[in-house]
Design a protein that fits this description.
single chain, Porin, 13 strands, about 70% strand, globular
């Protein structure tokens, strides 16, 4: 049973919240019941050539029973440089899983987020659907999720508030061919049900290489595409990050 749960120190990062949260990387694989998770809070005030003000928090909690799993994710980042807002975004996600069959889990979630850089004042999501386990191998895991969700979105570009239903299909796989190497990837596809030409795609892939003991170097690439973003926002965005992580079982 292997998983990476906490970013200990970031070596290089282009910080930007994607518009689609990858819930797969939040799942903590464990056979025991009870609480688990992590909490981090950062506050930075500095003056050099410019004045910097940064506030960030990252809370991840999980509670597991025999057939029930509860996930809570809360993330916030605010960056101001020389009085100018450089980044201001946050997301709160709550998800419930019920293990219906050995290979079928039913999911339900609610999510709220905002991203001032992407001109998202508010995006509320409520969704539900099945999640299928496609493999039995411990070192090679494949999952498929097919959900439907209601979306309430308010943008700051002057467009009207939208209230629509979207599909949310995802395919996730995790590979652990050796004790020192792992590869995890998840792809999301979220079309508007009333107009399939209006869709979002997100892919997050990461490679982790064990350095020594419980420490590993992790490289993550995230790509998102929105067919109809807010006015003035690019369709595609990406992020590449490298960090040192602490892993435990």
């Amino acid at each position: 049973m292997r998983f990476l749960t906490f970013v200990f120190f970031v070596l290089f990062s282009v910080s930007s919240f994607s518009q689609i949260l990858n819930v797969e990387r939040l799942r903590k694989v464990t056979d025991t019941t009870g609480w688990s998770g992590s909490v981090a809070f950062d506050f930075t005030l500095a003056r050099s050539v410019n004045d910097f003000f940064i506030v960030a928090n990252d809370i991840h909690l999980q509670y597991k029973l025999t057939k029930h799993l509860f996930l809570l994710k809360n993330q916030l980042r605010f960056v101001k440089i020389e009085g100018e807002n450089f980044s201001n975004n946050g997301i709160t996600h709550f998800r419930y899983n019920y293990k219906w069959k050995p290979k079928i889990t039913w999911e339900a979630f609610v999510q709220g987020q905002y991203n001032k850089v992407s001109k998202i004042d508010l995006r509320l999501l409520v969704g539900t659907g099945p999640r299928f386990k496609l493999s039995k191998l411990e070192n090679y895991k494949f999952y498929l999720g097919t959900l439907i969700m209601y979306e309430h979105e308010e943008l700051s570009d002057g467009s009207a508030t939208s209230k629509d239903f979207r599909g949310s299909a995802y395919f996730s796989f995790s590979m652990y061919p050796t004790d020192i190497f792992s590869f995890v990837s998840t792809t999301y596809y979220q079309p508007l049900l009333s107009n399939l030409g209006d869709y979002r795609i997100a892919r997050e892939s990461s490679v982790a290489i064990k350095a020594f003991k419980n420490f590993a170097v992790k490289m993550t690439y995230l790509f998102t595409y929105d067919e109809t973003p807010a006015e003035g926002i690019q369709n595609s965005q990406y992020r590449f990050a490298t960090g040192i992580l602490y892993s435990f079982k």
